[in-house]
Amino acid sequence: AKNTHRGTAVFDPAGPAPESPAQLALVGELRAGLGRDELRLYVQPKADARTGEVVGVEALVRWQHPRHGLIMPDEFIPIAERNGLINALTAEVLDLAVTAAAGWAAAGNPVSIAVNLSARSLLGTDLAGEVDALLAARQLPAGLLTLELTESSMMTDPRGVAALLAQLNGMGVRLSIDDFGTGYSSLSTLRRLPLDEIKIDRSFVMGLEGNADDETIVRSVVDLGLNLGLHVVAEGVENERIWRILRQMGCTLIQGYYLSRPIPVGDFPGWLSHYRET
Ligand code: C2E
Ligand code: CA
Ligand code: CA
Ligand code: CA
């Protein structure tokens, strides 16, 4: 298919459907906005489930649109993926995240940062080379960067993804499997790839109060992960009761509104010192 328009890719040939006029406008605005400081990095803390110590954050991007205000990732990440903008977006998010974590480490707070990767940003670029150069430029130890991938992102080209993950793991970057339990081939994936962490999808975590099936699932995933030597993170922890259940199950880290909502990255050092005081 012919997919170029004035020399710029508008439709990804692999994309499912053409965009609506409103979405098409967003595509152009996102393309212009990238590199113009319109992406805003928010971070959400993750704590040791036993001690409550904050050891890391997840980077969650928002788009400060000049007219529409703050747009959430569910609204623009899929558009970026379908229109050839996801690699530029991922590069910008990685730079913001690595720069922030390097600043915290330099100030005496070595807190790790996790960045979400779309399936489409795994292949077709030299991601490992870019990450390596970025870590060197910002002087962030590789062990303070975690990359979160979904199970489905490993399906398109399993061998290519496995090679990429081996490269990143060799550099010392930590690898996490996101939304665990919602995709396919979970078990073979865990055995095959050099993962460090499993994130249990919040749909299961939120069912911990009252849903016996969800409790069984979460307990099994925690046991499985721990037995494989992985860290297990529970996302979507909204109250203390759920935290307590997860702690009893042996879950490694918790993340969710109970600890904090995602906050602007610049607010994190202040949030952390306040958290440590209380
Ligand atoms: P995710 O990776 O599963 O991120 C967790 C989402 O759950 C975030 O939504 C977060 O704000 C929300 N959340 C956290 N704690 C709680 C809680 O206790 N209760 C509830 N109900 N929700 C909670 P957000 O920030 O809207 O991000 C949505 C999705 O967008 C993310 O899901 C991730 O898949 C994607 N995303 C975000 N930032 C990026 C990025 O930089 N790159 C890529 N490729 N995807 C991103
Ligand atoms: Ca995530
Ligand atoms: Ca590793
Ligand atoms: Ca999730």
Automatic annotation (TrEMBL):
Highest taxon of source: Bacteria
Residue span(s) of domain EAL: 23-276
Protein name, entry field: Diguanylate cyclase/phosphodiesterase
Region of the whole protein represented: 546 to 823 of 834
